[in-house]
Amino acid sequence: MPLRAARAVIFDLDGTLVDSLPDIAWHLNAALADAGLATYSIGEIRSWVGSGAAQLVARAVVGPERIEDVLSRFRAHYRANPYARTSVFEGLAEALDHIGNERPLAILSNKPHDLVVTIAEALLAPWPFRQILGEQPGTPRKPDPQALLAIAKAFDLPPEACVLVGDSEIDVATARAAGMPSVAVTWGLCDPPRARGCDPHRRHAGGACGFVRSAGVAIGWAHGMSQVPQ
Predict the structure, then answer these.
(1) What secondary structure letter does DSSP report for 5?
(2) Which one, 9, 26, 135, 167, has the greatest CB density within 10 A?
(3) What does residue 73 show for φ and ψ, rounded to 5 degrees?
(4) Would residue 12 show up in a list of annotated catalytic residues for this protein?
(5) What is residue 38's predicted lDDT score, i.e. its pLDDT?
């Protein structure tokens, strides 16, 4: 199913819609410095993102006895200033204009729900995201499909009529568990995801701008589609 045939498009947030790595690195290093620990380059931190704040901090801290303290500091820093260094990926504005004019849009993230809403309101307000969901008590995180299925239900659509767009294997696994096609972008925070049964992704020149030039066809490679889009 090409993206243009999807009746709703659901996006991951970090690494898909917004480049939040500068903020993640800034706040993590601030938390580490506060705790008297060594800081890291943005390249090192990039290799640790994608599995949530607790895993990020665990990878940065030597000694499990320091994890909870640094995690608390990291969350406090992030919550105080969640998007100072975060920006929408170049080229996505035109793509969102095109896609949002034709179908409902949603965001599904493993970031805490209030932060997802805050960032979306600050950086993504021009586009009509009808559903915005982050991590909340009582709702399991991706790759559990519960929240993704809830979004499809809110749109009164079956999962197979929607597409999940993300930058990680977690996103692909979530869509697969929900019976929903997924599209993996090549410009995200994680290494380009690959999953069993999916063809290798194909890059479009210009990174995120390839989404624009594809204008409604699947970017990269897609799970649940008959062939890799050209």
Answers:
(1) G
(2) 167
(3) -65, -45
(4) yes
(5) 96
